[in-house]
Design goal:
Largest sheet: 9 strands, mixed
CATH class of one domain: Alpha Beta
Structural class: alpha/beta
Strand content: 25-35%
Number of helices: 16
Strand order of the largest sheet: 2-1-11-10-12-13-14-15-16
CATH topology of one domain: Rossmann fold
CATH architecture of one domain: 3-Layer(aba) Sandwich
Distance between the termini: 30 Å
């Protein structure tokens, strides 16, 4: 199976069915197939060969959804860019992936142009709309000159479907290569818990550059249903769509759920008759927030745990699990559920040996949805996929019923509003400030975002710097979600005998009274 097989099948069987809805305009499966073919032919006309990479920096839109399927037909590998990153961060990903073409939303063209002199490998820049900048091609003009015939390229199911970059623990993100087999396997695994009918709509407001957004798109297309896209998370508009637009399913991160409950005054007064299921994950969620959301929306809830390296999902806490938790086993609400179909979990010690039930250790997983490996990083691939098991770097334990509980992160990753932040990357920026002698970055509780990035700084003797000055310094070099929300100044950082900062000690006062977990 390849990604485009779903689109082609439903275009043949139900060509008039709604494929994508965006900003008041619908595209049918028949029209979607023609548009995907046209885009595939445009890519091939550029001289791109199978396995070549192209980058996309855009918010959710119809063209973004089409790109995944068009690239599948042409054998081209899309590299989705997190549009919240700084242009310098884009530059690294574009260069590392060896992308030969960039498609960007009009709001991101200026950012791309700021790094353009360093992008020697990119041969064409395509703008999705608005006023077309100098040196850019119009997407509509570029694609409309090509035919709607199938490109007729033989694509193997073992070929890469996309290359999605993960946050790097040393400031260098890694490109996870996810094959067609991995994607179609994960969709098949998830259809046991996410099935959507042909006449239903799946609201996707999480970004399509993210594994959760892409997975939701693929599930919906596999079922021949409609993907209802929103470009930005606007709580009032999400609530309106859930109550008025025949939305049956949606995926949200906990920070989004919290925002709907807090920022929309009439959220509890509305009716959500079409809404059957709300999926959440990617960061911690409080039990109080979850209980209120279940009461307000009146639908089934399902939690997913996984990562880019596993296409999307490894475990699910099903609607039945949620019901059981609310009735008799409250602690299940802190669980990430049990392995999905065809997936094995194993908790191991530092030597890689399985530990007894209930004993904490590193979470490892095996299944058909695992990535092929990291782009051009053989050693990292070998370590992460040792003996065919994905080493997640998450610490957890499994109870006697097979439910997974995630306790912490091996490498202290912070998840803020569904975005991964690695402290070392932020620390490197803080250390580059001339007034900073020592620094540590931790995650602290945040009602809105789940976790907030906090810096703890030791100033050099004789030097001065304010909290706002250091935050502005970080903002000039990092994406906004990575900038510390607060910075404390201390005389020294706690360290062990080998000099390692004791982040457990730093986090302890902030997490006192909180049940720290990862969704």
């Amino acid at each position: 199976m390849r990604l485009h097989d779903w689109l082609d099948f439903h275009a043949r069987e139900t060509p008039e069915a709604e494929f994508v809805y965006f900003q008041g305009s619908s595209v049918s499966y028949g029209e979607g197939q023609k548009s995907a073919n046209r885009l595939a032919n445009a890519l091939l006309a550029e001289g791109l060969a199978q396995g070549d990479r192209i980058a996309i920096a855009a918010k959710n839109c119809t063209e973004y959804a089409l790109l995944y399927f068009a690239c599948s037909k042409a054998g081209i590998v899309p590299v989705p860019l997190n549009y919240r990153l700084a242009p310098a961060e884009w530059q690294y990903i574009i260069d590392d992936s060896e992308a030969k073409l960039i498609i960007a939303g009009p709001e991101f063209a200026e950012g791309v142009d700021s790094i353009r002199p360093a992008l020697g490998g990119v041969k064409r820049f395509v703008s999705l709309g608005g006023e077309i900048p100098a040196g850019w091609s119009s997407y509509s003009a570029w694609t409309e000159s090509h035919g709607v015939h199938d490109p007729g390229i033989e694509i193997e199911s073992t070929a890469p479907a996309y290359q999605m970059y993960t946050s790097g623990t040393t400031g260098r993100p890694k490109g996870a290569i996810v094959t067609h087999n991995a994607v179609t396997s994960n969709v098949s695994q998830l259809l046991t818990g996410f099935f959507i009918q042909r006449d239903e709509r799946y609201l996707i407001v999480v970004p399509l550059y993210h594994a959760a957004g892409a997975s939701a798109l693929f599930i919906t297309t596999a079922c021949g249903a409609c993907t209802y896209l929103q470009a930005d998370f606007i709580p009032q508009e999400v609530v309106r769509a859930l109550s008025e637009e025949r939305i049956a399913l949606t995926t949200l991160v906990p920070a989004m759920i919290q925002a709907l409950l807090v920022m929309v005054p009439d959220v509890a007064k509305r009716s959500y008759q079409s809404l059957r299921q709300l999926a959440y994950g990617a960061s911690p969620i409080s039990e109080e927030t979850l209980r209120r959301a279940i009461q307000v929306f009146g639908c089934d809830f399902v939690q997913g745990y996984g990562m880019t390296e596993s296409t999307a999902v490894l475990t699910l806490l099903t609607p039945k699990d949620h019901e059981r938790a609310l009735k008799e086993k409250r602690e299940l609400l802190r669980s990430a559920g049990r392995p999905i179909l065809g997936t094995e979990l194993r908790i191991v010690d530092p030597a890689g040996e399985p530990v007894p039930t209930g004993t904490p250790g590193e979470i490892t997983a095996r299944g058909p949805q695992l990535m092929q490996g990291y782009w051009n990083l053989e050693d990292a691939t070998r370590r992460t996929l040792e003996h065919g098991w994905l080493h997640t770097d998450d610490v957890g334990c499994v109870d006697e019923e097979g439910y997974l509980y995630i306790l912490d992160r091996v490498k202290d990753m912070i998840v803020s509003g569904g975005e991964n932040v690695y402290p070392n990357e932020v620390e490197n920026v803080l250390f580059s400030h001339p007034a900073v002698g020592d620094a540590a970055v931790i995650g602290v509780p945040d009602e809105r975002w789940g976790e907030a990035v906090k810096g703890i700084v030791v100033l050099r003797e004789g030097q001065t710097a304010t909290e706002e000055e250091l935050r502005e310094f970080c903002r000039s070099q990092l994406a906004g979600f990575k900038v510390p929300k607060s910075i404390d100044f201390v005389a020294e950082l706690p360290r062990n005998a080998t000099g390692k900062v004791l982040k457990t000690e730093l986090r302890k006062p902030y997490w006192a009274g909180h049940t720290r977990g990862v969704a």
